[in-house]
Amino acid sequence: MELKDKVAFVTGGGRGIGKETCILLAKKGAKVAVFSNHQAESEETAHYIREEIGVETIPLTGDVRSEEDINRAVQETQEKLGSVDILINNAGVMLLKPFQETTVEEWDFVQDVNMRGVYLCTRAIVPQMIEKKDGVIINLSSIWGTKGGPDRSAYIASKYALIGFSKALGEELKPYKVRVNAVCPGPVDTKMMEELAPDVNKENWLQPIDLAQVVVDLCLPKMRAVTASAIEAFGYGRPVGL
Length: 242
Fold this sequence. Notes:
Layout: E1 7-11, H1 16-27, E2 31-36, H2 39-53, E3 57-61, H3 67-80, E4 86-89, H4 104-132, E5 135-140, H5 153-172, E6 178-185, H6 191-196, H7 208-219, E7 229-233
Helix pairs in contact: 1-2, 1-7, 3-4, 4-5
């Protein structure tokens, strides 16, 4: 119960890595705001936490690209659970398409979800952390945020940007004792990857719980020495395309 009475806000909390992270945070004692763009998924995660773990939680629905949705969700979290101590920016999308075939609309969509969404959530929550001089922000980047690869220029650009943002903000918030780190997963067996690459060999791929363990460990007080860093969580699998 290292996180007892802490309040966590998790985007993309309805499935995959986000869902497992919400559940594990609750098991560590944190009250969890489950934010998802699918109402049924956020409600399912919150129901499990409430009934099986017995921890306070609320389901929230919205679009991470919408300033109005984010501000409303953060305000509701404050009113029902308290000020946010932990922010997990997990929501993201991936596009597998050659650069020359990527439309402006597709490019903007990937950047808006993967970076604008992180900016909006962080912007809404950081003032609470600065006021308390305490907080943890974990941004889910990707191993593709550390390397180049074909047919994913929009995705790679957004994930490189997320690492840079995490390192910059981590340095900026050091005086306020707010830690900011990026986690860079290798291949993970999620619904998103199943939809993108249903026929790929998933031998040695990580499971969502494997990444949740990394994310939640970085939230614990024992990890106070780690900030403004990018943590690679690669496992033994090979990303699609390598």
